[in-house]
Amino acid sequence: MDILIGIVLIFAILFFMGFGIGDIMYLVFGVLGLGVLFVGGFFAVCLVFLGFSKRKSGVFLEIDEEGNFPSAVYDIEGERVRNIFPCEMIMKKKLYVPEKKITLLHCKLRKCAIDANALATIIVGSLIFIPASVIVIVKASELIQHLFA
Q: The dihedral of CA 128, 93, 72, 98: what is its sign?
């Protein structure tokens, strides 16, 4: 609710400063476009991590609550390795079975594991956000050409 009030106040201030509705909408779409670009860039980096990963066998050890987010920890060839993404909270007991041997991707570049959930997230996210980023860049270039023509 506080965020919504803050957004309304920002729009009101911009409106009273003399910006028109069209200018404010350009700003909104610009911010949304930057968000899409950042997410697309994130998934592009994740694809690079996939390129440097090797298929390995691993065993789930625990959910590590430390760090920026809770993450699954796997034992890969005697090394404790955190998953690249946060652990799934909804089906935690079914997805993370202790002492169960599973196939993972081990990324030496970032020293992280990529389990099946992370792999699915990277693939789906890349299929959605990388083309969306290209569309944002194309539309932004068209808009800039239109504004300065």
A: negative
Only one residue has tokens 């050890």, namely 61
Cβ atoms of 52 and 39 within 8 Å: the answer is no
- pLDDT, block means (10 residues), the chain with 149 residues: 89 88 83 90 92 92 84 90 86 81 89 91 94 90 79
In total, the chain counts a number of residues equal to 149
Helix (H, G, I), strand (E, B) or coil at 84: coil
Residues with Cβ within 8 Å of residue 42, at least 6 apart in sequence:
125, 129
Q: What is the pTM of this model?
A: 0.79
Q: How far apart are CA 113 and CA 119, in angstroms?
A: 10
Q: Are β-strands 53-64 and 71-76 bridged in parallel, bridged antiparallel, or unpaired? A: antiparallel
Q: Which of 32, 53, 36, 41 shows the shortest CA–CA distance to 118?
A: 53
**CA–CA separation, 62 and 84 (whole Å):** 14
